[in-house]
Amino acid sequence: MTEEKKLNYDVIIVGAGPAGMTTALYASRANLSVLMLDRGIYGGNLNNTATIENYTGFPSVEGPDLAKQMYEGATKFGAEYAYGTVEKVELDGDLKKVTTDMGDTFTAKALVIASGSEQRKLGVPGEAEYGGKGVSYCAVCDGAFFKNKHLIVVGGGDSAVEEGMYLTQFADKVTVLVRKDHLRAVAVTQDKAKQNNKMEFIYNTSVTAIEGDDQKVVAVKTHNNETGEDGEMQADGIFIYVGNDPMTKPYTDLNILDDQGWVITDDKLATKIPGVFAVGDVRETPLRQIATAVGDGALAGQEVFKYVDNLK
Ligand code: NDP
């Protein structure tokens, strides 16, 4: 006899990154039945992060390794994990109904949105065409394909600089193209990168197109934002780190998003809909870090417990 699939939970957490997994840990330790739903492997953006050096207790840790440890902790007290992209969220009185692309509709008393953000595209010609053929958004995944090559990184934030440094272990040279005359990355990261003799920074420069030979990337077209000059630069690969956009499409009709699509919460991580919470990067928040995501998860786990307990 096949076991019947469980579809009803106390809480559904959409997204199994650091915020979602921490919420799962706290909620399951409070004896709630918990389902984490994710469109991919647990860990979220940790899986695209090479080395993390600013998460307390871990002087230096690889993103995927930390993801695995978080997952083990998150599921230790009974929280479940299921694969599926959330397509629709409906409210039926106190009940939250979540439908995935796998055709499942799960229900719960509380919903925690922990879906994070996804990397923004540059939106230039050649970007989509050469995806997987030299255009990448993930140094950890693709860096090793570029041994002794020249790589271009686009962006000036922490991701661009940190992932650029990671790429220097494979590439001969990594050129970071920064559209303004300065970086946004934190000072310690900038200092480290500027001491790395494989790293080169070119400022005031935007990428306007990615060129290839049909098989792979060969060059990028550039525009100097100061002088107005256009140019071209040889490249074997281009890694794009130009910020993130929230993954909140299924929630647009709930009227809980700001004008850029981030979820608005109060200081207890509740949205204006009773029983709907949001944690981590997906929230409108001044800082998006693993540490802040985990802090959100702890508080939300507790708040969800109180909410569900009050329904009794
Ligand atoms: P950010 O939003 O911090 O930076 C995006 C960068 O891309 C900026 O330099 C921006 O330029 C540039 N940019 C945006 N659009 C374009 C474009 N079309 N063409 C060229 N450049 C463009 O994104 P990150 O992914 O770096 O970081 C996201 C968040 O995660 C941040 O809060 C960051 O601090 C955090 N983070 C923390 C890490 C850590 O603590 N170890 C590691 C990685 C990320 P401009 O400045 O001109 O807007």
Summarize the structure.
It contains six helices and 19 strands. It has 312 residues and is α/β, with parallel strands linked by helices.
What does this structure look like?
The chain has helices at 18-29, 63-75, 139-142, 158-167, 187-194, 290-311, and strands spanning 8-14, 34-38, 51-52, 61-62, 80-83, 86-92, 95-100, 105-113, 117-119, 135-136, 150-154, 173-177, 199-202, 205-212, 217-224, 230-234, 237-240, 244-246, 276-278. The chain is elongated and about 65 Å long. Helix 1 (18-29) runs parallel beside helix 2 and helix 1 runs parallel beside helix 6. It has 6 helices and 19 strands. The structure holds NADPH dihydro-nicotinamide-adenine-dinucleotide phosphate.
The fraction of residues in strands falls at: 25-35%
Overall pLDDT confidence: 96
User: Which spans of ≥5 residues are poorly predicted at pLDDT below 50?
Assistant: none
Specify the number of helices: 6
Task: Kindly report the oligomeric state of this protein.
Answer: single chain
Gross morphology? elongated
Radius of gyration: 21 Å
| Cofactors and ligands | NADPH dihydro-nicotinamide-adenine-dinucleotide phosphate
Distance between the termini: 34 Å
Q: Characterize the biggest β-sheet.
A: 7 strands, mixed
Secondary-structure element pattern, one letter each: EHEEEHEEEEEEHEHEHEEEEEEEH
Structural class, by secondary structure, is alpha/beta
Residue share in helices? 10-25%
Secondary structure tally: strands:
19
Element layout with pairings:
Blueprint: E1 8-14, H1 18-29, E2 34-38, E3 51-52, E4 61-62, H2 63-75, E5 80-83, E6 86-92, E7 95-100, E8 105-113, E9 117-119, E10 135-136, H3 139-142, E11 150-154, H4 158-167, E12 173-177, H5 187-194, E13 199-202, E14 205-212, E15 217-224, E16 230-234, E17 237-240, E18 244-246, E19 276-278, H6 290-311
Parallel strand pairs: 1-2, 1-8, 2-5, 8-19, 10-17, 11-12, 11-17, 12-13
Antiparallel strand pairs: 3-4, 6-7, 7-8, 9-18, 14-15, 15-16
Helix pairs in contact: 1-2, 1-6
NADPH dihydro-nicotinamide-adenine-dinucleotide phosphate binds at residues 54, 122, 154-160, 162, 179-180, 184, 206, 241-244, 288-289.
